[in-house]
Design brief:
The complex is a heterodimer.
Chain A lengths: L1 H9 L1 H18 L2 H14 L1 H14 L2 H36 L5 E13 L7 E4 L12 E4 L2 E9 L4 E5 L7 E5 L5 E8 L2 E5 L12 E4 L11 E10 L6 E6 L9 E10 L8 H16 L1
Antiparallel strand pairs in A: 1-2, 1-12, 2-5, 3-4, 3-12, 4-5, 6-7, 6-9, 7-8, 8-11, 9-10, 10-11
Helix pairs in contact in A: 5-6
Chain B lengths: L3 H18 L11 H13 L1 H17 L7 H19 L4 H23 L4 H32 L3 E3 L5 E3 L1
Helix pairs in contact in B: 1-2, 2-3, 2-4, 2-6, 3-4, 4-5, 5-6
The chains are: A alpha+beta, B mainly alpha.
Chain lengths: 288, 167
């Protein structure tokens, strides 16, 4: 016992370091649900309120610029909406004529990013919508550029989004042009690799990779990445397909959670109240 | 008071990281104020307190990325320990301090990326060259700026080897 104390006294700094390293490795070895629950409890009490306050203060300065940008966007969307409604009616008529199966569209819930990793490699976001807005775990999350990730944990008024830039978030994808199927895995920054593609498959640079819909969690046909490089892998049996996502994962400010499928003919694109608001905005802009 | 000042420091540096680092980033290259915080604390308080402080701060950072809970705690414990060892050996001037920030940030990111992206060593090394290296330079510049501001504020800091430095 005396010997142990003597050794501890002599190498106290190293002993502390070894204990801390052991503790860190123990934390890393915890199962992911336990890690999430542990973080959830502590973050809910400590970090999230502070991050919300910081986000509010820093974002306030950008509100005016963002407002103008949104007004421009609304004007564009309004015009596009009219065009889409015409296309929808026309398409529906044609589909009835051809007796096609009724297709589905999706309801998107917009959400604001209120928290991020402090790490420079971001693999999680916190958004300001939760189960009270109808969100559930594993629902897919999109931005204007395409698929962003999926909901990892849902609380009453906030949710964790696990981004595609996470090692454990592979996505089954399909080449939009040639219909080649593979599994897209993150490599670094916004670079990905499409795996399990045979060497005789048809994939070329510039092809768009969209979600395959396999597994039933993420619906089919949503853009994820664009093929940036194609080459032979070292084993000669498969292709090495690199792809880049158009999404800037570092600066995401708002995202959309896909909550449910709704029949195409019942989709309005916007609620009636939103439509009235857009008309007001357009009218006020035309009067300036 | 003994624990209040470091706690306040942690809150300020985390707020800097959350609110400022992204805004002054050059593309994907951003300074790491948390690394600056751990290095400064280690230099001033020595290996034991440096590693304990690094673990605490790293754990807080890990809470924002719970999929890898413990990784930041590990890397920042090592960083605090190493900075503490340096602090006991010499009183660094500004140039030496800049080098310490640079090497500290680079070594921290190297270990972090290697574990995070394991077994993708190639991708980790590429990210070290393309991202960690310029970020470490930026962190060194930001660290010196923070040190100068502390000096202007007249913060009194006791180095780990017993001498007082008037910042």
């Amino acid at each position: 016992m005396h010997l142990f104390e003597a050794v501890f006294q002599r190498y106290r700094d190293r002993t502390v370091l070894v204990v801390l390293i052991t503790l860190s490795i123990a934390l890393m070895s915890l199962p992911e649900p336990v890690q999430l629950d542990l973080a959830r409890g502590l973050v809910g009490r400590l970090v999230l309120p502070a991050q919300r306050a910081t986000t509010f203060v820093t974002d306030y300065a950008d509100v005016r610029t963002e407002n103008e940008r949104l007004q421009r966007m609304v004007a564009t969307l309004m015009l596009e909406r009219e065009r889409l409604l015409q296309y929808r009616d026309e398409r529906e008529r044609l589909r009835r004529l051809a007796e096609f199966k009724e297709e589905q569209t999706h309801r998107l819930v917009p959400a604001e990013v209120v928290g991020r990793d402090f790490d420079r490699i971001q693999s999680n976001l916190v958004i300001n919508k939760g189960s009270e807005a109808g969100l559930r775990a594993r629902m897919p999350v999109f931005s204007y550029g395409g698929l962003v990730g999926s909901l990892a944990k849902v609380f009453a008024n906030s949710s964790w989004v696990q981004l595609l830039t996470s090692k454990n978030h592979p996505v089954s994808c399909i080449d939009k042009r040639s219909r080649v199927v593979g599994v897209l895995e993150w490599r670094h920054r916004n670079s990905f690799e499409l795996r399990h593609v045979s060497s005789n498959e048809d994939v070329v640079v510039g092809d768009t990779l969209v979600t395959s819909g396999f597994g039933g969690t993420i619906p089919k046909g949503f853009p994820v990445a664009i093929v940036s490089r194609v080459g032979q892998s070292t084993d000669g049996l498969s292709l090495r397909v690199d792809a880049r996502s158009p999404v800037n994962f570092v600066s995401l400010e708002e995202v959309f959670v896909m909550t449910e499928e709704i029949p195409w003919d019942r989709s309005l694109f916007y609620e009636e109240a939103d439509t009235a608001l857009m008309r007001d905005v357009l009218r006020s802009r035309s009067q300036r | 008071m003994k624990f209040l000042a470091p706690l306040l420091g942690v809150v300020i540096y985390l707020a800097l990281q959350a609110a400022v680092a992204g805004r002054i980033a050059i593309g994907p290259i951003a300074p790491d104020f948390v690394v600056v915080c751990v290095v400064l604390f280690g230099l001033q308080r020595g290996s034991i307190q440096g590693s304990l402080f690094g673990f605490f701060v790293g754990f807080l950072v890990d809470l924002s990325n719970p999929g890898y809970l413990g990784l930041n705690a590990l890397t920042k414990s090592l960083l605090g320990f190493a900075a503490g060892g340096l602090g006991a050996a010499a009183s660094p001037g500004v140039l030496v301090l800049a080098i310490v920030f640079f090497v500290g940030a680079l070594a921290h990111d190297f270990v972090y990326l290697l574990i995070y992206m394991w077994p993708g060593v190639g991708g980790a090394l590429l990210t070290v060259v393309t991202r960690a290296l310029p970020s470490a330079l930026y962190t060194a510049v930001a660290g010196i700026a923070v040190e100068r501001i502390l000096a202007l504020l007249g913060a009194k800091v006791v180095t780990s080897f017993g001498k007082e430095r008037q910042y």
